[in-house]
Amino acid sequence: MKKPPIIWLNTLLFAITFIGAVVLIPWRGFTHGFDGIEWIAFVVFAYASGLSITAGYHRLWSHKAYKAHASVRFLYALGGALALQNSALHWCSDHRIHHKHVDNNDKDPYSAQMGFWYSHIGWMLREYQASRYSDYNNVRDLQNDRIVMWQHKHYLALVILMNIGLPAFIGWLNGDILSMVLMAGLLRLVVVHHCTFFINSLAHIWGKQPYTDKNSARDNAFLALLTYGEGYHNFHHIFENDYRNGIKWWDYDPTKWLIKLMNWFGLASDLRKVPQERIESARLQMQLLQAQNQVAHLPNCDEIIEKFQAEYELMKQHLVDYYQAKKSLLEAKRKQLTDHNLKQQVQLLRNQFLEQQRNWKSLTAAYAQ
Ligand SMILES: [Zn+2]
Ligand SMILES: [Zn+2]
User: Fold this and answer.
1) 3-state secondary structure of 266
2) How confident is the model at residue 2 (pLDDT cuts 50, 70, 90)?
3) CA distances (Å), 43 to each of 40, 185, 197, 260, 303, in order?
4) How far is CA 58 from CA 85, 101, 209, 246, 254, in A?
5) 178 by DSSP, 3-state: which?
6) Which domain covers residue 93, as residue numbers?
């Protein structure tokens, strides 16, 4: 099949910025050096642009995982222009299609089934989406957001202002315009581009699938470090409206921390969280599936699978009982009744569930090669 025509604007943009960074940064570094302010600006600009994509474009505008104050949305619009990944309106339209048709090569704009290069950057280099490029039907809600539409209308001007104007101004204040434009403008742009592109490429290839195997998305703690917390992509694809991607408190998810912090200051509200019971239940179901696959080649697999099924049902029942009791306890607390029996019961059911999980682990471990 003949490939669609090349989009020269995108191709030249990615090529020139990449080659420019590879050549000019070492050249400036060796001949002139970079000072501490320039390095700090690199980091601040990297977080400002990256988090505008992950907390703004992604979790706020694409998935409506929370609500944000207009001042925050305005900063996201500026940071999104700084990140140079198209307008929020366009980005979200693509992203919603990605979720709806994930891994479908005909529909998912950056389908991981097309390989690393395509899902990372290749999808933007040719007219693959020409037929629906300006179809914004799936982002009608965002068309009511004046900040989104303002950014969409003035996107090019904002890109130039944020990527060249702002670094040049800060460089002028710092006494070296060129070094600042190279560091906070060019190098930062290229690094943030590829780190965020990893969410579409590597986060669909490399990592574990603890919650679902219905799509290619993976959980990968290392990738979370490079992607502002978006490395927990398997969780994200099954529970896309949760404002978190890394759900454990120690999971590196600065996007989640930023949203929570803004919530404390009244700048973000209505943070959406999937009930823990549903998360656990998805996880258990995956464990059953993985255990079944593990023994499928054994001659007596039917018998073992039956055993697995029985243990799984028991574990599931303990889970339901535990969360039921927990709910009753919360209810009682809300009515300001302190019920010690109920508290003890919750503790007991929790222990039972954990115990059953340990049983499950040792049972399945016995069959793992
Ligand atoms: Zn994805
Ligand atoms: Zn998403």
Assistant:
1) coil
2) confident
3) 5, 11, 18, 21, 56
4) 12, 17, 21, 15, 14
5) helix
6) 8-269
What's the confidence (pLDDT) of residue 138? Answer: 96
Distance of CA 241 from the midpoint of ligand 1 (Å): 13
Distance 53 CA to ligand 2 centre (A): 11
Q: Which amino acid is at 330?
A: L
Q: What is d(CA 21, CA 164) in angstroms, rounded to the nearest whole number?
A: 14
| pLDDT tens figures, 260-278 | 999 999 999 999 999 999 9
Distance between Cα 278 and ligand 2 center (Å): 19
- Main-chain phi, psi angles of 232, to 5 degrees: -90, 65
Nearest to 284 by CA among 319, 250, 330, 255: 319
Provide the token pair at 34.
Answer: 């970079």
Residues 367 and 296: their CA atoms lie apart, in Å, by 11
Cα–ligand 1 centroid distance for 181 (angstroms): 32
- Regarding whether 361 and 233 lie in a shared domain, the answer is no
Greatest CA separation found in the chain? 75
Do 80 and 31 reside in the same domain of the chain? yes
In the reported structure, the alpha carbon of residue 237 is separated from the centroid of ligand 2 by a whole-number distance in angstroms of 7
Which of the listed residues 245, 269, 293 is the one where a domain comes to its end?
269
Q: How many domains does the chain have?
A: 2
- Indicate whether 180 and 328 sit together in one domain: no
Distance 130 CA to ligand 1 centre (A): 21
